[in-house]
Amino acid sequence: MRDRPYTLLSCSVSIDGYIGSAASRLLLSNDADFDRVDAVRASCDAILVGAATVRSDNPRLLVRSQARRDERTARGLAPSPMKVTVTRRAELDARADFFTAGKAEKLVYCATSRVRDASERLGPVATVVDAGHTVEMERLSTDLAARGVERLMVEGGATVHTQFLTADLVDELQLVVAPIFVGDSQAPRFVRDGFFPWNSARRATLASVHQIGDVVLLRYALSSRFEDD
Ligand SMILES: NC(=O)c1ccc[n+]([C@@H]2O[C@H](COP(=O)([O-])OP(=O)(O)OC[C@H]3O[C@@H](n4cnc5c(N)ncnc54)[C@H](OP(=O)(O)O)[C@@H]3O)[C@@H](O)[C@H]2O)c1
């Protein structure tokens, strides 16, 4: 068993680098790319999003294609991967689709100070993990590996992206650029401020470029573990 899962960060951005709008959920991709993302989800053991994304987007995070769900079931897996989120404040609604949609296990990594609140609120619908005083993505990744997660898909938002990337925990970045501008500095960008391992002195490796209708998929190999297919 590896000490952390193969980690794939998947994100769609506008031409001007935003991943959402300040006011409402923004659909950046197209149907063909949503289907591609569905296939990536089906290939993973767990999908992680930040608590703000659970609150703002109310994502279901399920594999949509019946054929892919059947294929997972035939391999002895749950139809959709485990869902994982991370929170300091524990202000998550147990009725959110993250918790109610699908039968896969749900994990909530919570800072110690709010674990009791989280357990009271979310205990019936998820496993609440005391992640320590400060939730660190490296420790979280190690814990996921110990729970059998070999392939982790990180699906946002910006705060979570930033921590995984700055901690050098991402093996593969799948970045989709959608042909729109958001043009609102209040909207979330792909990442927040931080020191990233890739910069002008150490450029990331672009592994492939694919056009998918009106969007483009850029795949970056961010570690030596990158799996080309
Ligand atoms: N385009 C895309 O592909 C895509 C995908 C996903 C999301 N999005 C967009 O991204 C935006 C949300 O991004 P965001 O940066 O605001 O939020 P986020 O990354 O989704 O979640 C941030 C929240 O996660 C929790 N968190 C993060 N790191 C933590 C840590 N180390 N310890 C404890 N808790 C931690 C905190 O939750 P608490 O506040 O509960 O403490 C924090 O407020 C939304 O607009 C959404 O639509 C876009």
Give a written overview of the molecule.
This protein has 229 residues and is of the alpha/beta class. Strand 8 (205-212) and strand 9 form a beta hairpin. The chain has helices spanning 31-42, 51-57, 66-74, 97-100, 115-122, 137-146, 158-166, and strands spanning 6-14, 46-50, 82-87, 106-110, 127-130, 151-154, 172-178, 205-212, 215-221. The longest helix has 12 residues, at 31-42. A nine-stranded mixed β-sheet has the order 5-4-3-2-6-1-7-9-8. It contains seven helices and nine strands. The structure holds NADP nicotinamide-adenine-dinucleotide phosphate (NAP). NADP nicotinamide-adenine-dinucleotide phosphate is lined by residues 11-12, 19-20, 25, 28, 49-53, 56-57, 86-89, 91, 111, 135, 155-160, 163, 188.
SSE topology:
Elements (H helix, E strand, L loop, with lengths): L5 E9 L16 H12 L3 E5 H7 L8 H9 L7 E6 L9 H4 L5 E5 L4 H8 L4 E4 L6 H10 L4 E4 L3 H9 L5 E7 L26 E8 L2 E7 L8
Parallel strand pairs: 1-6, 1-7, 2-3, 2-6, 3-4, 4-5
Antiparallel strand pairs: 7-9, 8-9
